[in-house]
Amino acid sequence: MKAFAYERPATVQDAARLAAERPSARFIAGGTNLLDLMKLQIETPATLIDVNRLPLAEVTETEEGGLRIGALVRNSDLAAHPRVRTDYAVLGKALLAGASGQLRNKATTAGNLLQRTRCYYFYDTTKPCNKREPGSGCAAIGGFNRIMAVLGASDSCIATNPSDMNVAMRVLDATVETVDPQGARRSIPIAAFHRLPGDTPQIETDLKPGELITAVTLPKPVEGVHLYRKVRDRASYAFATVSVAAIIAKGEGGKPRLAKLAFGGLAHKPWRVQAAEAALVETGSADAAADRVLDGARGQGSNDFKIPLTRRTLRATVAEALRA
Amino acid sequence: MGSCAALATLGASLRGRAEAAPAAVDPQPQTMPVSLEINGTRHDLTLDTRTTLLDALREHLDLNGSKKGCDHGQCGACTVLVNGRRINSCLSLAVMHEGDSVTTIEGLADGDSLHPLQAAFLHHDGYQCGYCTPGQICSAAGMLSEVEAGWPSHVTDDLTRKASLTDEEIRERMSGNICRCSAYPNIVAAIRDASTKI
Amino acid sequence: MDMNQPIGATPLDGKPDGLVGRPIDRIDGRLKVTGRAPYAYETRDLKNPAYGFLVEAGIAKGRIRSLDVSAAKRAPGVLLVMTHENVPEQGEKKEQVYPQLQGTEIRFHGQPIAFVVAQSFEQARAAAALVRAEYDVQTPEASLKAARPNAVEPKPAQTPPDSELGDFDGAFASAPVTLDVEYTTPVQIHAQMEPHATIASWEAGPDGDRVTLFTANQMLNRGQTSLASVLKLKPENVRLVSHYIGGGFGSKLQPQPEAILSALASRSLKRPVKVALTRQQEFHVATHRTDTIQRIRLGADETGRLTAIAHESWSATAPGDVFYETSAVVTRSLYAAQNRLTRHRLANLNVPIASAMRAPGEAVGQLAFECAMDELAEHLKIDPIELRIRNEPEQDPEKKVPFSTRQLVACMREGAQRFGWDKRGATGATRDGQWLVGMGMAAASRLNPLMPSQAGVRLNPDGTLTVRMAMTDIGTGTYTILAQIAGEMMGLPIERIHVEIGDTAYPKAAGSGGSFGAGSAGSALYVACDNLRQALLQSAGMNAEGATFSEGRVTSGNRSEALADLAGAQGVEAKGEIKPGAMKEKYSQHSFGAHFAEVGVDADTGEIRLRRMLGVFTGGRILNQKTARSQALGGMIFGIGAALMEAAETDTRYGYFVNHDLAEYHVPAHADVPAIDAVFLPELDDKANPLKSKGLGEVSICGAGAALANAVYNATGLRIRDYPLTLDKVIDGWNEREGAAQRRT
User: Which of B59, B89, B107 marks a domain boundary?
Assistant: First the structure.
């Protein structure tokens, strides 16, 4: 870990000002991913701006009947929140499927959104990685790539977003609220928040330098069965190989009348294909939906299994929702 | 092979980047005062900003009960309670805990009288080598509070109801604490036993 | 005592309520649950240590072209940067303990290339990252599969690499029923919770230099000898201290590079130096269990009687190293057949150093062989237990000597009855909701060695007893069982026994490894106590015949004396020693067991989860029912990991293990382990050692994973011969089956 200056601002304005003054600064909240990476010198900020004391830890109701989740709301608090448990179960389930009790007690809503994508080679500074060192190459392509992407990957990067929460946020159409160093606020739809790698895999989100997430808002609840199916190699405390976040409402004749689906473990960002949802409602067939989701899917060798696994997991999830 | 040739310019294992900036522009190590309440006693320290809460306990306060198993939040051996909540002390900087109240394994017992979890681990042989044990016990203490507060888990069927402390719930909630000796069945028995005595 | 004949009656016999065997709590337990047990990195005996951080090679083969340490040396707090250019002269390698930082040649990824010492941990770690290496990189050879044709016959280990009996080829060719299958097992990592760690203090002295290492080490006297060789010191001038060890599983059988480097750095700095490997470094700098390829051929008649057995194994280690995985050794003694062949071949590859991991040989050997037996049973439509019973040998089939004890059949029958084996359904026939359910079983067998070991005991004036030896407790319960043995022998309650182990200043002991720890160290203690008994009787002028020691007194005839009174003002000391003898050759000695597992396979995703498991074992006299059960459960859970998740994946382009941390190398977590149980059948083995005990730490992993794999077959009809059984292989199996079905239609 490189040495760094440490700042502990008390207000959002001060945090933004510090970020503007210190170009290689990083905000730190839970720290569960950032410190992990700093110890390996994958992240080397010259200044850490500790935002934990900012007043951003509230969950409040919005006028539209949705929820506004403060950036610093811990994953465990969010999962235990009464409104999340009753109205946004897919989010609660996704949060509880992630990491461990200890990590969820530290990890924050904003920090979870900003989890770096996961790749063995990204984590090893002796190996080429375009994300860590643009232009050095991608060791995962042609290597061992069990955890890597089968959708939306590029020749530069095949890493995956490891977050469970993000998949649920995607299916819930969340909005990310930010403030930039100049104090300007904006709202970013979750669909536009995470990026595909393209030829700039080092840029993972739409955030600009120094821009601070202040909250995530959820629209009013969507009725239906909320499921989060996480498939993994160990029964707990493991990243998803594939995950499906689903909100499905049953209609006439046992067919879904509403379907919202997002997928984890497949791509550089939570994956959602609206045509797949339409196909599910139209045909009632999970396979028809899977065809749309997996359109263009390409395995890299050791992750080929994710393609049939996605189809199988979607089938099981849809069936479970319609049984409920 | 192309990818290997690229390696020739890369450095040793913990290297930042091939074109990493020279040391001259790296910030000098910074130290900061920090005040922590540990096991009920206030400690005023001056620490390198890089010092984790775990290393502060082990290297600066001679509290070696909290263990370093992975230093990356992947094993749980470093689990302590901060303001009553269990966290991985390896993934938190000491300076981030100014004014916080920290309970470590050394602070659980009441004098010579063991905490019910400690007594239960002893009786049920909830360990072998003992290295993950302080983390398991602190984690269990935090976990039982979470259950008491009505928090659900991944295996809770109905999120809207308060979960009961089944073995399945204990196992899921304790999965952030790896035990390579694999005392898991005995740890679960110990926690089940102690949960009725706290 | 040399173990040349069966021990006969001993003071431990006929005491069903005695201290030995009783499930007492660990005597070191209170220190462990309060966090006060000091592990190596935590000792307070060596003051003011500096902090070391190891720098390892990021390539697997090539040469260091330049090593720029200037920035590291200038970095704040740095005291020393040691490389091949300034490392002190070292001696000869001993076993797998190698001199460090020798020259510019890189033979494997993770080979140490520098050692940085600074005032603080943070400074040392940051400075280590400033060491700049440039390499001339060569393409590594890192694939066992590719190297297999050129693998060589290794130098003999404890046993020869090859064995042959009868005419395997002829018998196999003419057998009515044959099986010829290959299994592969991946690189596995010990992943003990405490990383390798040492605090070393080097002191120059008039009688030569001395070094003290508080270090995480399972076999202190072995480590003393090898470190003396590498550090060019007399063995008596090397002291290893290891009071508490955070797991070993073989990874700490020998000193690892951090012990050598911290000792050398302490020599240069004239100050103690402490260092721990990072978790990531554990995978490459320390040792691992090699991957294996195993070919098994079985020939049998229609009734399942084996006529021909061949088990061949290929494994790998680093260039210049001789360790090979003895996968097929257990096959030499497990089942009867007239015609037999075992063969081991080794490939030296640009991979880190392979070494022993819990039940080296047997653990992976039985992952393969016990599945092959299941395949044969399936083929013959014979119950897997019945197939094994039909091939039960009357004596060791290769050594042609009797077994000291062998209750494999009893273990299988007891287990079958307890587990409800008769409820096992036909292949693929049982379903519970989303789960395809299956049961499997496997036999377990592990060699029971006895190693030379010494012990010292001292009866103190206050009537307490002090036990001393350079033994270790890696979590197996050694402290406790030693106290139980001494207490039983001397008739003292457990509270009056002080066990002092973990220091080469004490009598030489076997250490912990290879299932020999309790039997060897415990037997040395038994002999020491026996000698103390005789000394006390003699000095008191009491008749040894019929003398009993109990409740702190010795009684003989009509005389009874308190031990405290016999201790006198100075106390009384005695020593004891055990050595293997003729019993080792005259009898084939193994612990046995049987595993039963029930798994569920998610019919959609292919996820495999264990539902329940039972192990039934024999290990001679059980010294503590509580700690023994814990050890057995631990071994079984290691087997769960081996079957379902553990694999360090080699990227052969770089010759390194890609998933080198505990987030990506999965070991079982709490949620992977449902209700499981382990039981022991009564047994005494009077050929094994004076305690009549046998090893337990390893038999419980042997075959455990195979029971799960066989259960997966029973659940799904899929025979996955490439460990671990991950969901992708299940899905592949289903896809192949569907493809085949479509081709048929």
Answer: B107
